[in-house]
Amino acid sequence: xxxxxxxxxxxxxxxxxxxxxxxxxxxxxxxxxxxxxxxxxxxxxxxxxxxxxxxxxxxxxxxxxxxxxxxxxxxxxxxxxxxxxxxxxxxxxxxxxxxxxxxxxxxxxxxxxxxxxxxxxxxxxxxxxxxxxxxxxxxxxxxxxxxxxxxxxxxxxxxxxxxxxxxxxxxxxxxxxxxxxxxxxxxxxxxxxxxxxxxxxxxxxxxxxxxxxxxxxxxxxxxxxxxxxxxxxxxxxxxxxxxxxxxxxxxxxxxxxxxxxxxxxxxxxxxxxxxxxxxxxxxxxxxxxxxxxxxxxxxxxxxxxxxxxxxxxxxxxxxxxxxxxxxxxxxxxxxxxxxxxxxxxxxxxxxxxxxxxxxxxxxxxxxxxxxxxxxxxxxxxxxxxxxxxxxxxxxxxxxxxxxxxxxxxxxxxxxxxxxxxxxxxxxxxxxxxxxxxxxxxxxxxxxxxxxxxxxxxxxxx
Length: 461
What we know:
The chain is of the alpha+beta class. It contains 16 helices and 12 strands. Residues 212-309 form the PpiC domain.
């Protein structure tokens, strides 16, 4: 069954972004990368089996269950304790409003341990290359995080401790990000080159695709076999349920996705639907911005996708228009019934129809006892999706239909001015070159980390 839901994150980003930022550590430290490659999985024709020379009929002797292990490990001599796992897990649970089932916690615990192992390997490799992060720099980043919560560092430490985490856990994450970023700049970036011909090719393709649809989506990909497909699909539905309750899509992508975009929260970047697998393209075309769909059967597993935005290539987006608005609002007294609210809303709507441009808005507002507020430089795309299409089609002086609720009252927006967006042009050569270099650095960094995992001595306790 395909489930399509509207994500609560879209309208709550500004309110609930604080602790989620801790999970999106690249964004926290300003060293984020944006990969546009999708997942790569083995074909169904048995290529992987041929490469490994595996028998057709496999009999498993004994039982391998990662959940049986205690959540501790020793990575090249560095101990990861159960407390380390618990404190990092507490951050994730807090970021998701504390509403995580016991079953979900166990899955998260296994993934958190994997992430801590990777983080340890990154710090160790940086140290082996004489790259060390000054504790003062880590403390400065930590203070910026605390400031985002409008707390002092000591207050923020208390806040974390009350939720089962600690400042040490966040500082360790900060250290890992800084160390790994510097290692990439030293060992990877100097050896990544992009030619002028490649840049020109990208510009030509963009110009050829001008006016075609593009979608920016994020994906959580979970691999599955015919034997465990039902369980994996159930896990995907559980993840969707957690996101519906306010969980961060990007955080769950970092924890669970098996795609190459895991490190960037599942963000595939801007893609044309034709560049996606057919199953994902169909879902993306049918979805609205802010919706989540899944589980979607794909080659080798299932996917959950989140439509972050849509646009037309190299075409000005009407949602980038800047509006000057007047808002007229009337609140309902406490205890107002639905019928009473409907009657008052109808009276308000009749009065609003008399508005002939913004010049009369204040006068009409005074007559009906409405609050009138001026709002300038409001970008259409920053408004709720239900209002974007309405306002995009209104002329100066026109008003929206009344909207609201019994709790919030009823209101209208009157368009007093509009600055339409300038025509969109292709990115310049420097921007394209920087993006291509970033993608290649990110790809090589994933290979680098894979090799570190392969060569590491890891003991599980």
